[in-house]
Amino acid sequence: MSVTYKYPHPAVTVDAVVFGFDDADLKLLLVQRLAQPFKGQWALPGGFVQMHESLDQGVRRELAEETGIDRLYLEQLYTFGEPERDPRERVISVAYYALVKLNAYHVVAASDASEVAWFAVADLPKLAFDHEKIVETALRRVKAKIRYEPIGFELLPEKFTLSDLQRLYETLLEEPLDKRNFRKKILATDLLVPLDEYQQDVAHRAAQFYRFNRARYEQLRERGFNFEL
Amino acid sequence: MSVTYKYPHPAVTVDAVVFGFDDADLKLLLVQRLAQPFKGQWALPGGFVQMHESLDQGVRRELAEETGIDRLYLEQLYTFGEPERDPRERVISVAYYALVKLNAYHVVAASDASEVAWFAVADLPKLAFDHEKIVETALRRVKAKIRYEPIGFELLPEKFTLSDLQRLYETLLEEPLDKRNFRKKILATDLLVPLDEYQQDVAHRAAQFYRFNRARYEQLRERGFNFEL
DNA sequence: CGAGAAAGTGTGTTTTAGACACTAAGAGTC
DNA sequence: GACTCTTAGTGTCTAAAACACACTTTCTCG
Fold this sequence. Notes:
The structure is a homodimer.
Chain A: E1 3-5, E2 11-22, E3 25-32, E4 42-43, E5 46-48, H1 55-67, E6 73-80, E7 91-99, E8 116-120, H2 131-148, H3 162-173, H4 179-188, E9 192-198, E10 208-212, H5 214-222
Parallel strand pairs in A: 2-7
Antiparallel strand pairs in A: 2-3, 2-5, 3-4, 3-8, 6-7, 9-10
The structure holds a DNA duplex (30 and 30 nucleotides).
């Protein structure tokens, strides 16, 4: 079964840069390629867009197929279309980035039988195609976005401590933050709900857990509120 | 001459949302469609990406062909890929937005023989395809971006007065700004160079001309400077 | 019960944002 | 050439936000 067109058409893929956060490291989800080209090398999860699905649906499908991840914060990043980025044919890739709660996916199902693994962003293997460039773009975007939108919560579990949150911000912003000022500022946004729960089995004073109040955020945002750290 | 593929491929187009600024109005450049579908309707300039050119090159070529515009600030906006957005076949459109100095292009050459015209953004005609959605997205982007990057200068002529600049900001932000505070803030960035030139033939005190110091901006940006109005 | 380790908490200072109103300059009119 | 019209240009005070900064609390473990 083949298809004929009057003019040449590029192939279109969707690729996903999936970030997770783990104690002190930003992590990236990669899959190992089963086929040529770049067979055996690590690459971003992704694949060809099907004719009946939207781009968003496409990434979601590919992610589920290759990694088992299916509910996440996903946003279009950039479209990469240099003529020579794939040795086989002209391939245009619409890249997305996603933020996931790492601990919710510690075991990654790989129904496509390829290897799937998390890598620290600071220590990535060599990637297939121009995926390094895509990852760089995604990193830049996330680091910029974290400053003015509360996307950091997508990387943390449902319940987290203020120290967890601060650690996340310090990692992404690559600068230390003052504990008192950080807490003052983050609590002033009125986006965190303190829970009646505390850490267990820690060898020091137990920290209180909080959760992100998403409904409140939507509410505030409609009234022109601006999150800024 | 036709082409055959093993699997179906979508067509890929590039479309450009070109903004200009004229005294008090933000304007948008549109072309009139010569062919079906949507024949006779206004649409964004754009067309199919050729196999040997990058996406950036593609938009630039299409823009030059259809409107004669060839040197401008151009940035990728978003990729639109809903399956039904084009009635002919599956078409994925990589949209760009551009900012041009309107007076430099007052006469638009239309080498493709189609009509080309500027429309006030506040008063657009009905557009072909999902181009209204694309324009909305571009508008949102530009309005957001103008706050934290000095892209406004791309819309103004080389030499402009502070009142011109303020009018531009007021139009884009859709709010009046205090003259003294605006001037204080904008001059404090150290990005404007006062010129030894003044308005001519105006029936009131002549305003001084300024120019944007692009080199200075690059310099400051590298040192982590953050433009913000 | 002392040591270690992280949680939690408040104030004073500096910087930045915002409100606000008059004088200066040039052209046009009588 | 005096008056009017129109926009250019300018400074201060107040309020809010950002930032610097250090000690006490709570818990576990040995």
